[in-house]
Amino acid sequence: MKNKIIVFAAILCIISGPLSAQSLMPKVKNVIENFFHTYELKSQASVPAEFQKKTSGWWVVPLTIVKGNVIRSRPLLYFDFKRQKYLKLPLALNRNPTAVDYSSYVHSVDAYNFDLQPCYGYPGWYDDALQYFASQPTLNNDQLFAKARAWSSKAISPISNQLADLRSGDGYKLGFDVNALKGKDLRSYTSAQDSAIINFALLLKRDLHYPTIVGSMDIKYANEVMSRYHTLLCFAEEEAKKMVLPEHLYTDSILNVTRTLLESCPQNAILLSFGDNDLYPVLYMQAAMNLRRDVYCVNYNLLGIDKYIFRATQKQFDAEGIAFDADTMLYAGTRNDVLFIKDSTAGMNWSMLRQVIAKGKQDENGLRTAAINRLFLPLTSDGSFGADGEISLEGAIYFYKNQWVLLGMIANLNKGRVFCSHYPFSDELKGLNRFLKASGSVYIWGQ
């Protein structure tokens, strides 16, 4: 009997090996709350430390500000996975520990990835994660999903580096051109992206209803296929024309909602989307079903990335590019990623704000500040052109790049072209909402 128990235990260890290794690694919540309960970091940085998860354990990178620049200290091993213990660090102890909310120190998306991935939080993490998965004899559903996401990050990071997880020197040197992605860079992108799609497809076969941030697995798989198409459409347009999109990629219920969304847009409108689920189904209907190709769908978050900003000014399907009177040098790379807003009695129109962005005095970090408490855009609440519409900036302390870029695009609307939004604004641009009026499934600017 004793021998049978030993054999059974050995089999259980083999089956659950990948799971047990992950379960022995503390969750990001526990690590961050434990760290800031134990140690006190005095830093001018908004977040005084970064965290890195590796197969060796959890690492902490203290941050300091020197002459306005963020300096990353040498990473310190905080939780040793092999020894299964937190280590004492050469840092000042917190003499007055209080309750810690980990969400104050890590973005929700990062927190999700920290707990999902075996490695995360540093440049090139996806390569280490993929190496880890390659060493596992079998993968459960969560691990297969994590592997697919790692491939997806490996594919898109050299293009956008939206999550700042790209190793120095690994980015593609793309120019401002709709066919900028080519040669070995194009092959590298499509290889990684196709690997992501293959792994998502494997999980789709296992569990159609596997939950993801965007919905069930069938939606995530469809969005990943369309992510490939959209990236090619933006940076390798000729390749996008060759891509054959699958029939019935989205369910009828999603397509019906998307059709209503598009049909709510006036002719030649600009449609602002806010996420994957209101961008990719729209592009699918336009590309695969030839529906409402006159509407230009642009994503709010992607307007924070220089090459996507340029792409939005170029023709897409049957829609003319979006007018924007800012040279690419105004937003190239990380230029003007953040514009600080200083409360003032002054108001500005777009031309004045653009001058601040282009020529305003820079601080030691290269950041500019606009002394402004309201903005005037050339459209009033009754929809007439030629008068200035006042937008309050009350409470705003900064504009991110995607926000001031959107303001510039709205300010350059040609008479007759309508701006539509899928949702009202909840961020620094919430002052725009007074000009948005519900019309079917969209909100239309100034109509």
Short descriptors:
single chain; 447 residues; alpha+beta; five-stranded antiparallel β-sheet; five-stranded mixed β-sheet; 18 strands; 38% helix; 18% strand; globular; disordered N terminus
Secondary structure: elements and pairs:
Layout: H1 2-23, H2 28-38, E1 49-54, E2 57-66, E3 69-72, E4 76-80, E5 85-86, H3 108-116, H4 125-134, H5 141-160, H6 183-206, E6 211-212, E7 215-216, H7 217-235, H8 237-242, H9 252-263, E8 270-273, H10 280-288, E9 296-299, H11 306-312, E10 338-342, E11 347-349, H12 350-359, E12 368-371, E13 374-379, E14 385-392, E15 398-400, H13 401-411, E16 419-421, E17 436-439, E18 442-445
Parallel strand pairs: 8-9, 8-16, 10-12, 11-13
Antiparallel strand pairs: 1-2, 2-3, 2-4, 4-5, 6-7, 10-15, 13-14, 16-18, 17-18
Helix pairs in contact: 4-5, 5-6, 6-7, 7-10
Care to describe what's here?
The protein is α+β, with helices and mostly antiparallel strands. The protein contains 13 helices and 18 strands. The protein has a domain at 253-445. Helix 5 packs antiparallel against helix 6 (183-206), helix 6 (183-206) runs antiparallel to helix 7 and helix 7 (217-235) packs across helix 10.
Note the gap between the termini.
Answer: 80 Å
Q: Quick one: biggest sheet? A: 5 strands, antiparallel
The shape, in one word, is globular
> Which structural class best describes the helix and strand composition?
alpha+beta
Number of helices: 13
Strand content: 15-25%
Poorly predicted ranges: 1-20
The average pLDDT value, as a whole number, equals: 90
- Rg for CA atoms: 24 Å
- Say how many strands there are: 18
Helicity, in percent?
Answer: 25-40%
